[in-house]
């Protein structure tokens, strides 16, 4: 029997691996700030492996947000991860 793969795959912006959407963290940039995805703007995904590789993921984030404020993104990423674990 053929297993039909219904989950849509999304690409992690850091490692470019494709993963099921529910295994990725969905983020967006709002005015140069990193936020959890709330529904409207262009969003992107980071896999749970890359979240741990801070240096690598920050590079990808700065590229997505077209901003070079590494310290700001480091803090914002930490906040988002903390919120994600709470929910
Ligand atoms: Zn990744």
Q: How would you portray this structure in words?
A:
The chain is an alpha+beta fold. The chain has a single domain, classed as Hypothetical Cytosolic Protein, Chain: A (2-Layer Sandwich). The chain has three helices and five strands; from the N terminus they run βββββααα. The longest helix is centred in the C-terminal third of the chain and has 17 residues, at 70-86. The chain is elongated. The N and C termini lie far apart (37 Å). The site of zinc ion has 7 residues, from helix 1.
Short synopsis of the structure:
The protein is of the alpha+beta class and 87 residues long.
Q: Secondary-structure element sequence?
A: EEEEEHHH
Strand content range? 25-35%
Number of helices: 3
Apparent shape? elongated
Low-confidence stretches: none
Helix content: 25-40%
* N-C termini distance: 37 Å
Strand order of the largest sheet: 4-3-5
**Tell me about the biggest sheet?**
3 strands, antiparallel
Which CATH architecture would you pick? 2-Layer Sandwich
CATH class: Alpha Beta
Q: What number of domains?
A: 1
Task: Specify the structural class.
Answer: alpha+beta
User: What is the count of β-strands?
Assistant: 5
CATH topology: Hypothetical Cytosolic Protein, Chain: A
Rg (C-alpha, Å)? 14 Å
Q: Which whole number gives the mean pLDDT?
A: 89
What are the salient characteristics of this protein?
three-stranded antiparallel beta sheet; binds zinc ion; alpha+beta; two-stranded antiparallel ribbon; Hypothetical Cytosolic Protein, Chain: A
């Amino acid at each position: 029997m053929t297993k039909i793969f219904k989950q849509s795959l999304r690409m992690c912006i850091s490692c470019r691996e494709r993963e099921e959407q529910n295994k990725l963290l969905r983020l967006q940039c709002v005015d140069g700030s990193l936020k959890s995805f709330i529904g409207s703007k262009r969003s992107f995904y980071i896999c749970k492996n890359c979240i741990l590789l801070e240096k690598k993921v920050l590079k990808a984030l700065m590229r997505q947000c077209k901003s070079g404020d590494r310290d700001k993104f480091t803090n914002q990423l930490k906040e988002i991860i903390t919120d994600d674990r709470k929910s």
